[in-house]
Design brief:
By secondary structure, the protein is mainly beta. It is 12% helix and 36% strand. The strands form 23 sheets. Strands 4, 14, 15, 16, 17, 18, 19, 20, 21, 22 and 23 form an eleven-stranded antiparallel beta sheet that branches. Strands 1, 2, 91, 92, 95, 97, 98 and 102 form an eight-stranded mixed beta sheet that branches. Strands 42, 45, 46, 47, 48, 49 and 51 form a seven-stranded antiparallel beta sheet that branches. Strand 72 (1378-1389) and strand 73 form a beta hairpin.
């Protein structure tokens, strides 16, 4: 096992190449540069006798900060740079890979009297910073040194080198092999510290391999040294790291770079100006230290820097001597560069005198993007660095920087100045192709980022980071081939407005990356006012109201409005930042109306729903005096018959402001003093009712034993409802007690405790509790003697439902009870007169044989106890009982049961709801019911200004289907209920119940307003004008097996339309059947079936619940925690569905409701382990709304799907409909029944429904298969990884290919699990609905799998759009079998073919729009795909080469016409869409519509400049113009200007257009030089000359940008490539006696690019490098890259260069010549090292002549 793992690892291999450097006679050639490398690592040390290569001068990276110099000032004003006079050795470290955690290294330098160790730390993403390196520095004396670098995870690095006086040294290291370097002893490269010496024995070998494998098998701690990649775990990735170190060959010892030491130089200001110049920041000596902060200088008097007032900084050589130098580099501040000035170089002449050489400093903003090489002294800005070339090594005595202008005009800034020994060996700053000029356009929850196009790349990587709610910074990376990216999601969710997103972009080309450019920030913003705040709640206090509401998106502050309900004007409170506010200073017992609005930069949004609540007063509620025992003896005096009252006496339970209890904390006499200002306060939700305690509650002792029947009390401030009570009489708990809330005549609340049989007691302990809210109180309490009247009336009934009278009841009994009820005591009627009058009236009705009815049987098979473990929510077990009740209404619930006696607790719970509620806070569990009579006060759910109340429900919470319960309600308002639970569809009972329900609707709905006026008027909670949308009497309930509707009766009836009762009943029956069918279908695809063995796999016992609710902001429907909310207009749709008719699952007719209902149900039943909101839930909507199974009825377009799965994108699509397609395709690929096919047998269901298996394994992972392995399914990977695992388990296929096409990359654990299955070989990412139907109906016998059925085809580059490749497609198979064609684009790199699927089409033509790639040979492969997702044999097409001109896109452009009168082409009169204006199209957009066939026509003015101005609306990099005539043009002479600001114009070209030539390119050049000049421009002006008063026609203008490097072979006169034997020696460099020898095999080609950074390689037909490589990996062939040096000395991008590639005669094997040859051109970042090597262009294959001709080369 160990060896198998180890040998599976791939070693890293890069080919060796030669490097181009500049020659002196117009030739750029390859040469090998020596380096200073004097010892190797411990495992490879040269022998003592080995010759050490010469040291090489080179530009050094920045140095570490040195100690600040002493500010000694000599007579000459010289400021010494370093008082230590020591040399500096800098050791820098770069990371070769993305760090997961920081890494720390010990850097030890030993020699010449020092042994010093410093710590170097690599931080995360350091390699992407501007410098790219972390470093340390040592101050040393000249001598020999040994460097050691160590880290526990690495092999210790050792290197020896010598330090000479006057030089600083730099050793560059990396913690791995960097791409693009040639790691040979003869090349320049960084050193490599190798990972993997885990046993610390000083070598890398199999012992280290064994230790890592052992650590993997034992799940070693993350801190182990075996954790090579430092990712907090030991895994195969660490073994890969070791393999790279073990098997990678190459020289790992660093080249040593040196530069002139600062000890040689000093710095001074001009003595005449020194006292007038202020050093604003830094020290003058800092500028010779690369690691210091530099300096800032200005004139003390604020004088602007100018030619008259320059700032001079001089660098004299120490001791008035001279030093050989070749040039210098100056780094300034990019935001405040030097714009004007001179470098004055004082040199020593041959006769001992001196000479001043002035070199002008150019303005960096005017510099062109070209690399500098000069025949004379010159200066050039390169990426913010001023490079000054002295034109060879000269003896420098002093250099003076004379600054006469800066961008800020008064401040000069210099960071560092570095003096170089030899500029000829300095390589200009590389062209990194880092994206520039990033810009963002923000909008609502979205932004678009764009940048300038780069060349020689294949795409871009966009990094987006932001801080999320918990403060964590999250980073995501996206890839694109375009120069713009729309960003609408981040971290798996939509963007959040006003969040700062940081964006960086880098170019990519294979594994090569440019590094990120400067970051920009994007802050999306809303374009509209805030939505109305949701869920406004009010809480009343004493003279206060506390308002709270939902925190709303895109809302900065809130405004709150309030007024007394009797007032007309609102008081406005503005600028509220939180989503809560307390209104103070209000009046007692006054009702206030409140609403809230949101405010943002766009203004104030709409109002929330208005709410209303009354403030609280200390004023007492009026308690009853009926049969009162403890009568009042006056305020502040203890009431009669009370001996004592005690409490616990603690910080939680105490008396407040009670004089009677001041001396005893346990005394509670204040609740019997007839004062509401003294009260018992419980800072808890329970006082011994739920949590029993002998010292809890209030214990009251009376003066003797009384028979007590009622206890009344009131709270000090009524803010919390009391919910329960527990009473102990003389120490014994009283059974059957209950508590109800009552309102006095002023609507102040009080509570009544009932002791049903009365209790004889002297001492009572009263314990109460709330609805789990703290802060209950008792201000006053009264005891009332028992009166049997209530029990006497209740005892008239013989059953618990109070529907049958005792046999001995007579009319005289009823009359006597009525007389007692009408007789007052203490001037008051019975406390419960209203309630017991109802019961007496019921008894009279029964006695008169009128009956009561309305008994509801409870379904005990509907319970939450059975639904555990199903993995989704949205269910409830509520059963409607046919009553709607308003807030604070008292209703009586009668419960009959087959078990228990009267008064026993049941498993039934009463729920009260709010009709037409908002999404939250609409339901309360009111009480657990007991057998017999239950008197209940309905709690208030809302303070909104509409009717408060709604339907009542009972939920059974047991798990015994033998339980029997029946319920009857007294009180409330009856509402229509249709109970079809477990009723067979279309049975007689089904139809009878539906017909009766429709009759009830037709009777009830017309009476709703009358019912409201009769029953609701006068009751505070519902005392509003009638509103059909809010009247709680309008509720209705329909209960099916798996769904319940709680909606509007009026809208259900409206959905049934017109017709007879029977017709409406039939329509409702059809609609309800459709809902049953839809729910059953959904649960089939979830693997739920009542025939399943395991309870977890059975259908839910509970139902989903669609409720009529208010919508929150932006919602049309929504899915809540236990319901689905729909609004008024959607309710009628529930009764207008159509029963599905299908044949074996195939659709015939019917309609299972709309997308919205399916979408919301999907939210509720989505399996949580893989659910992605707004995507996976849509699978259910897609399933039920399709009708016929044709592609056109899908929610998405299949072509959009094909575009995505062939795009190479990573991550799920931003388009939700396309993202849904991935889940749908798995259903299509593996389910072989029609969409509506269901299965009664559970095993058949699992076998035939893909998602039935997925969800089954999600609920019970142990049921999932393991293929041919033993790794069990684990669902711990997050939604995406979980789904990959589940889908592969359900398919029993390794679905890696499918998911990678969809942008999902399996992680290590996922791969380990799914690789146990055989790979899926079908191209199921192309499957569509019609393909599946075809297979169902025809079988797979006609497959084209592997067959050669494709016609001859040809790829053709479009002549007009030259980055479009068109392919005509065709086949000779049965057209009914073939679905479409898969297109594969092939490129060759390093001699190897790289394939990329770029498209799939069902059409007969395909266009590959090639973006990012240019100047590359493309070979296309085509495979036909049949309806069974099998591929035909592949056909390879002849290659083509893409060579476009870097065209800029025109989407943002506008055209301005100057002194041209257009010919009106189209005039549109006023229309309905444009009622206020005419639309005139003058044709100007024809100039930029990408169609040369559409022409702009106009007439030129006389005597004025005639021009067309293109406004790009962004800054573009431009190199030229293409004028496309299209057969019609009248432009002759022209001039082209560009501008950044539309004020300052620069002429870049002029000439004459050929009227007969259709496609003419105008490159921007300087004089006759062939160098392409590149400019930044936001505007381009095309001036037309010589057309005064004449017609002008302009077809199309394209603007060109950099098009990248290009390579090809040069052709002889006969068109054949120039390949042959060189006849005579060709002298490359006469000064160095370098030549191409006669007899060499030469290949001659042409290129476009930069000779300093291009490297060419030739390959034969076998992918082998032409010429081969030797045993050391070095190329046997050689090459030169030829380029003319322009007159102005600038060498940069050339459009027509020549290369020569040759194999010397002694290396030529004439018997083994290639038959074909092709060229590859590479671009590198560093011309000496080949760092950053990437392929940028290649050529077609060319035949090598069988007989090689002689070739003669000349310099012409």
């Amino acid at each position: 096992m160990k060896r198998k793992i180890a040998y599976l690892l791939a070693a890293v291999l890069t080919f060796s190449s030669v490097f181009p450097v500049y020659a002196t006679d117009s030739i750029v050639k390859n040469t090998e540069e020596a380096d200073v490398r004097q010892q190797s690592q411990t495992e490879a040390t040269p022998s003592d006798g080995e010759e050490k290569p010469d040291e090489q001068d080179k530009v050094t990276p920045d140095s570490e900060n040195q100690d600040s110099p002493d500010k000694e000032q000599t007579d000459k004003g010289d400021i010494p740079v370093s008082s230590s006079k020591k040399n500096v050795v800098k050791v820098s470290m770069a990371t070769a890979y993305n760090l997961i955690n920081p890494e720390t290294y010990q850097i030890k330098l030993q020699g010449e009297g020092i042994e010093e160790t410093k710590e170097l730390r690599l931080e995360l993403n350091k390699e992407e910073s501007e410098s790219g390196n972390t470093y340390v520095a040592f101050e040393v004396e000249p001598g020999d040194y040994v460097l050691e670098v160590s880290n526990p995870r690495y092999l210790t690095y050792k290197q020896e080198f010598s330090v000479e006086a006057d030089y600083n040294y730099s050793v560059a290291l990396s913690n791995g092999w960097l791409a693009g370097y040639e790691y040979q002893s003869t090349s320049v490269h960084p050193g490599v510290i190798k990972r993997g010496d885990v046993n610390h024995d000083g070598s890398l070998d199999d012992k280290d391999v064994d230790l890592i494998i052992k650590a993997i098998e034992e799940n070693a701690e993350s801190s182990s040294d075996c954790n090579l990649n430092n990712d907090d775990k030991v895994s195969l990735a660490d073994l890969q790291c070791l393999a790279e170190s073990l098997y990678r060959e190459g020289d790992s010892i660093s080249s040593v770079e040196r530069s002139i030491s600062e000890r040689v130089l000093s710095v001074e200001l001009d003595p005449a100006d020194r006292d007038k110049i202020e050093i604003v920041d830094g020290e003058l000596g800092n500028i010779l230290r690369a690691s210091a902060d530099g300096i800032k200088l200005k004139w003390k008097e604020g004088t602007p820097i100018s030619e008259e007032n320059p700032i001079k900084v001089a660098f004299p050589v120490a001791e008035d001597k001279s030093k050989e130098m070749g040039g210098l580099t100056l780094r300034g501040n990019k935001d405040n560069p030097i714009t004007e000035g001179t470098i004055e170089v004082e040199v020593e002449t041959e006769d001992g005198g001196t000479e001043i050489i002035p070199i002008e400093i150019p303005n960096p903003q005017m510099a062109m993007f070209a690399m500098l090489r000069s025949g004379g002294p010159s200066a050039k800005w390169e990426n913010g660095i001023l490079v000054v070339d002295f034109a060879g090594q000269v003896a420098v005595k002093k250099v003076t920087i004379v600054i006469t202008g800066t961008q800020s005009n008064n401040l000069a800034e210099i960071s560092t100045v570095e003096f170089l020994n030899n500029m000829e060996e300095r390589i200009p700053a590389p062209q990194m192709d880092i994206p520039q000029n990033l810009s963002v356009v923000e909008s609502d929850k979205k932004f678009t980022v764009s940048w300038d196009p780069c060349v020689n790349i294949t795409g871009y990587e966009v990094e987006i980071s932001a801080e999320i709610e918990d403060g964590t910074v999250v980073t995501e990376t996206k890839r694109t081939a375009q120069t713009t990216l729309d960003v609408a999601s981040f971290n798996g969710d939509e963007l959040v407005n006003k969040t700062v997103y940081t964006v960086r972009v880098q170019s990519i080309n294979g594994e090569w990356k440019s590094g990120y450019g400067e970051a920009v920030t994007a802050i999306p913003f809303t374009t509209k006012k805030p939505d109305a705040p949701d869920n406004l709640t009010l809480k009343a206090g004493y003279r206060t109201i506390t308002a709270g509401w939902k925190k709303m998106e895109d809302t900065d502050t809130y405004n709150l409005f309030y007024k007394k309900d009797t007032d007309t004007e609102f008081t406005k409170v503005t600028g509220i930042e939180a989503n809560t506010y307390q209104i103070t200073g209000l009046e007692d017992l006054v009702s206030y109306e409140v609403y809230v609005t949101g405010v943002n930069e766009n203004g104030e949004g709409p109002a929330s729903i208005h709410s209303q609540i009354a403030t609280i007063a200390i004023e007492a509620a009026k308690l009853p005096e009926y049969r009162l025992i403890n009568a009042s003896l006056g305020e502040g005096t203890l009431s009669s018959h009370i001996v004592s009252a005690t409490i616990q006496g603690s910080t939680v339970r105490s008396m407040i402001d009670s004089p009677l209890d001041a001396e005893n904390v346990k005394s509670a006499l204040g609740i019997f003093d007839n004062l509401y200002t003294s009260y018992y306060n419980i800072n808890d939700w329970d006082d011994g009712c739920a949590y029993v305690g002998k010292d809890k509650g209030v214990t009251v002792t009376l003066d003797k034993a009384y028979n007590i029947g009622y206890i009344s009390f009131a709270q000090a401030i009524e803010k919390i409802n009391i919910y329960g009570v527990r009473i102990l009489a003389d120490g014994t708990e009283v059974k059957g007690t209950s508590i109800v809330k009552r309102l006095d005549e002023n609507n102040r609340a009080w509570y009544l405790i009932k002791l049903p049989e009365g209790v004889q007691a002297t001492k009572l302990q009263i314990c109460i509790r709330s609805f789990n809210a703290k802060g209950i109180s008792i201000a006053e309490m009264r005891f009332h003697e028992y009166d049997s009247l209530e029990n006497d009336i209740y005892s008239l009934f013989s059953d618990d439902l109070y529907t049958t009278l005792r046999e001995d009841v007579t009319q005289a009994d009823l009359d006597a009870l009525q007389t007692r009820l009408d007789t007052p005591v203490n001037n008051e009627y019975h406390i419960e007169k209203e309630m017991i009058q109802k019961e007496l009236d019921n008894a009279k009705s029964i006695f008169a044989q009128q009956g009561l009815g309305n008994i509801v049987n409870i379904h005990t098979s509907l319970t939450s106890k059975k639904d555990g473990g199903k993995g989704f929510g949205g269910l409830n077990s509520w059963q409607p009982i046919g009553v709607s009740a308003y807030a604070d209404e008292t209703v009586v619930i009668y419960v009959g049961s087959n078990k228990g006696k009267t008064g026993d607790a049941t498993d039934l719970y009463l729920y009260a709801t709010q009709y037409h509620s908002e999404s939250g806070g609409f339901v309360t569990q009111v009480a657990r019911l007991k057998v017999g009579r239950n008197e209940v006060s309905i709690p208030k759910q809302t303070d909104r200004i509409f009717e408060k109340g709604g339907s009542l429900y009972v939920a059974y919470n047991g798990n015994n289907q033998n339980d029997r319960y029946a319920v009857r309600v007294s009180g409330g308002t009856d509402i229509p209920v249709l109970d079809l639970y477990q009723i067979e569809e279309d049975s007689e009972e089904w139809n009878t119940r539906i017909t009766a329900y429709v009759e009830a609707l037709e009777k009830k709905v017309p009476e709703l307003e009358n019912i409201h006026n009769t029953k609701h008027k006068g009751n505070v909670a519902v005392d509003y004008d009638y509103d059909k949308t809010n009247c709680i009497a309008g509720a209705t309930e329909i209960m099916l097996d798996l769904m319940m509707y709680s909606v509007s009766s009026e809208q259900i009836l409206a959905g049934l339309g017109t017709g007879t009762v029977q017709e409406k009943a039939e329509k409702l029956s059809s609609s309800l059947t459709a809902m049953n069918q839809m729910m059953y279908l959904y649960y089939q695809h979830k693997g739920l079936n009542d025939n399943a063995e395991a309870q977890v796999d059975k259908l839910p016992s509970q139902h989903l619940n669609i409720r009529y609710h208010r919508m929150f902001a932006g919602a049309f429907m929504y899915a809540g925690g236990n319901h689905i909310g729909i609004e008024w207009g959607s309710v009628s749709g529930l009764s207008s569905g159509q029963k599905l008719v299908e044949e074996n699952g195939k659709y015939v007719s019917g309609q299972m409701f709309g997308w919205g209902i399916g979408h919301e149900i999907g939210h509720d039943i989505n399996q949580g382990t893989y659910a992605i909101a707004e995507i996976t839930n849509n699978y259910f909507a897609q399933l039920s709304t399709r009708g016929a199974e044709v592609n056109s009825t899908a929610r998405f377009r299949y072509q959009s799907v094909y575009d995505y799965v062939t795009s190479g994108s990573v991550g799920r699509p931003s388009n939700g409909a396309v993202a849904l397609a991935m889940y749908w395709q798995l259903h299509l690929a593996y389910d072989r029944g029609y969409n509506y096919k269901t299965y009664e047998n559970y095993e058949e269901q699992l076998a035939n429904l893909f998602y039935a298996r997925v969800d089954t394994y999600s609920r019970t992972p142990s049921k999932a298969p393991t293929g041919n392995g033993e790794i069990a399914l684990a669902l711990n990977g997050g939604t995406e990884q979980n789904f990959i695992r589940l889908a592969s388990a359900a398919a029993e296929k390794d679905l890696t290919d499918f998911f990678v096409h969809w942008g999902y990359i399996p992680d290590e654990e996922t791969t380990a699990y799914i690789s146990q299955f055989e790979p899926e070989t079908r191209a199921i990412y192309y499957v569509n609905d019609e393909s599946r139907v075809y297979e169902i109906e025809n079988g797979t016998a006609a497959t084209i799998k592997g067959q050669d059925i494709l016609n001859d085809m040809q790829a053709v580059v479009d002549t007009n759009i030259r980055n479009d490749v068109k392919i005509e497609l065709g086949h000779n198979a049965n057209p009914e079998v073939v679905l479409g064609y898969e297109i594969i684009r092939c490129t060759i790199s390093d001699g190897k073919v790289q394939e990329q699927v770029v498209g799939f089409t069902t059409e007969s033509e395909f266009t590959d729009h090639v973006t990012a790639i240019n100047n590359r040979v493309l070979t296309y492969k085509v495979a036909a795909v049949d309806h069974f997702m099998n591929r035909s044999a592949v056909k390879t097409l002849a290659p083509v080469k893409i060579e476009h001109d870097g065209d800029h896109g025109k989407a943002l452009w506008e055209v301005e016409l100057n002194n041209i009168t257009p010919v009106e082409e189209n005039k549109t009169e006023n229309t309905e869409d444009y009622p206020d204006e005419e639309i005139v199209e003058d044709g100007r957009n024809n100039i930029i519509d990408n169609d040369a066939a559409t022409v702009f026509k106009g007439t030129a003015s006389v005597g004025k400049e005639v021009s067309v101005v293109l406004d790009f609306h962004q800054s573009l990099t431009v190199t030229g113009v293409r004028y496309r005539a299209g057969g019609e043009s009248s432009v002759g002479s022209y001039k082209v200007y560009i501008s950044e600001d539309k004020t300052n114009w620069k002429q870049v070209s002029e000439g004459e257009l050929n009227a007969l030539e259709k496609d003419q390119k105008i490159y921007f050049q300087e004089g006759e030089d062939p160098w392409i000049c590149t400019y930044k421009a936001a505007y381009l002006k095309f001036v037309i000359e010589g057309r005064d008063g004449k017609e002008i026609t302009i077809p199309e203008i394209d603007v060109l940008g950099p098009s990248g490097d290009n390579v090809d072979f040069r052709a002889a006169d006969d068109g054949q490539p120039i390949i042959g034997i060189l006849k005579n020696d060709y002298v490359v460099d006469s000064a160095k006696d370098e030549k191409i020898p006669a007899g060499s095999l030469v290949f001659i080609g042409k290129y476009k690019g930069n000779p300093a950074y291009n490297v060419g390689i030739l390959y034969d037909e076998n992918g082998t490098i032409v010429g081969g490589i030797d045993e050391n990996g070095a190329l046997k062939a050689e090459q030169v890259i030829l380029a003319d040096v322009p007159d102005k000395g600038e060498l940069g991008e050339t459009s027509d260069g020549t290369w020569v590639y040759w194999i010397a005669h002694e290396n030529l094997d004439t018997n083994n010549l290639p038959k074909k040859v092709r060229a590859e051109l590479y671009r590198v970042n560093n011309a000496l090292t080949n760092e950053g090597q990437r392929l940028v262009s290649d050529s077609m294959f060319y035949d090598v002549p069988a007989v090689l001709p002689e070739i003669e080369l000349t310099n012409q």
